[in-house]
Each structure stands twice: as C-alpha cells, then as structure tokens.
Specification:
mainly alpha; 11 helices; about 80% helix; disordered C terminus
C-alpha cells in the first residue's frame, strides 16, 4: 500500500519540501501531530459524523507525511539514529491513538465494554503483524540484495551512545536508544543470513510470498484505518471492522505465512 499509494502521494510533497529548510525529523513530528489530531477528531466525532470524516482525512495526511520523511532524508543524503527512532515512535503513537479512539467510539455508541477488548486485540495484532513483516523483509533483502542499508547501522555505536546517555542522566535519550538497540539487534540477526547463491532465482521463487507478507505492513493497516473511519460517516459500525479484520483475516494470513516460511527460505 505504501509503494502503490502513499509514496506516490508523498513524492510531490517531497519535491516542495526540498526547497525549504524543513528537516525530515520535523516532517515526522508533523506527521505524529496530525495523526494525534485524527484521533482527537475521531473521539469528538462519536456523536458527530462529520468529524469522523475530518478524522479520516487527517489520518490520510499523517500517513502521507510519514512517507515524506524517509524520502526527504534520502533525497538530501541525511539519516540519523534519532530520526529512525522518531519515525518508529510516530507510527506507534498514531496507531495506538487511532485504535484507542476507535474503541472509545464503539464502546460509547453501542454501550458495550467488549469493544475495548476488540480494540486491544486489533491493536496487538497490528503491532505483531507489522513487526514480523519488517523482520521478514529484512531477511529477504539480505538474501537477494546482499545487504540492507536501513539495517546496517553500527549497533556498537548505538550501545555507546546509550551508555553515554545513562551516564549523563539523559534518561529519555537512554531509554529510546535502548529500545532502538533491542529492536535493531533482532533485525541485524536477520542480516547474518548468507546471501542466496542465485539472488535472481531466489527472488523469482519467493516474490509471491513476499508480496503476501507486504499485506501485513503498517501501510496496509493505516489504509484500512482511514478507509473505515471515512466509511463510519455513514455507518459507525465500520470502525469495528478494522479490529475484526486485523484480529481475524490478517492473523490468519500471518499464521499461514509463518507456517510456510521454514519451507521456503532456504539458501
């Protein structure tokens, strides 16, 4: 969804941003602010459907901006550990906010606390699916492209920066660097997989499997989110289908792909 929709929408925005002093990190923060605004509008729209339309439109803007920051960083040839941390946190903040807001709207409109449980299941499913897709994508690229620049950062340097932050009592920085180190360590482990002796043949045999995995990426979840939020203008119950689809159909897809993975990822 990111490749075919969101990044294409982001490209002209990036072209405009290149002419300004706006940094990729500032774009990330703006994306998070707009995404939080979408969550607030969704809550305020519990009994006012037009605000649910506003929420859906704000979420579209947030998702497009989320694609802009990476494109802008690559176009300018800049990247940083804090930029990667900020980008990941922004996605989680927006995702959690939308899920909790949707749970609130459903529980309030229909007077049932069970919608909160459904929201938690949907949120947990989304987080697991996105993380496992990211890890699988890293392993796949390691086999077919002999490296993955977004995951080749020096983890020893990240650890040194983390320890320095602890010593200087910069607890927020230390905690963020610790989280980033833990997550990146798992991704680096995936890069230890030896490249395929025939990358072209490996890509041919596994391209379909990776396309199926890509449906579990964060772009799919955000698209599903804003489409159903917009649909809730006409039918409030559409919000529940985000959680239902994430916790059922997408989890079934995840289970099938995990079962198939050991039989198809040989060198």
């Amino acid at each position: 969804m990111d490749a075919h929709i969101h990044r294409r929408l982001a490209s002209p925005v990036v072209a405009l941003l290149l002419r300004t002093p706006i940094t990729p990190n500032q774009v990330t923060l703006l994306s998070a602010v707009v995404g939080v605004g979408a969550s607030i509008a969704l809550v305020l729209g519990t009994f006012r459907p037009p605000l649910r339309l506003v929420s859906g439109l704000l979420l579209i803007v947030a998702v497009v901006l989320d694609c802009c920051d990476g494109q802008l960083a690559r176009a300018r040839g800049v990247s940083s550990t804090y930029g990667a941390i900020l980008d990941g946190l922004a996605d989680y903040v927006v995702g959690v906010g939308i899920c909790l807001s949707g749970g609130y709207v459903m529980a309030t409109l229909y007077g049932s606390p069970w919608y909160w449980l459904l929201a938690v299941l949907g949120l947990a499913s989304t987080a697991v699916q996105s993380a496992l897709f990211d890890h699988t994508k890293t392993r796949y690229i390691a086999r077919v492209a002999r490296g993955y620049s977004e995951r080749e950062e020096d983890l020893a340097k990240v650890a040194r920066d983390r320890d320095q932050a602890w010593r200087e009592r910069r607890l927020k920085d230390a905690f963020l660097l610790w989280l980033y180190h833990q997550y990146s360590a798992a991704q680096h482990a995936a890069l230890m997989i030896p490249p395929s002796p025939d990358p072209a043949e490996y890509r041919r045999r596994n391209a379909g499997r990776m396309r199926a995995w890509s449906w579990l990426g964060v772009g799919t979840h955000f698209l599903l989110g804003y489409v159903l939020i917009l649909a809730s203008y006409w039918w409030a119950g559409a919000l529940a289908w985000f959680f239902i689809i994430s916790a059922s159909l997408l989890n079934l897809l995840l289970a099938a792909l995990v079962l198939l993975e050991p039989r198809q990822v040989g060198p």
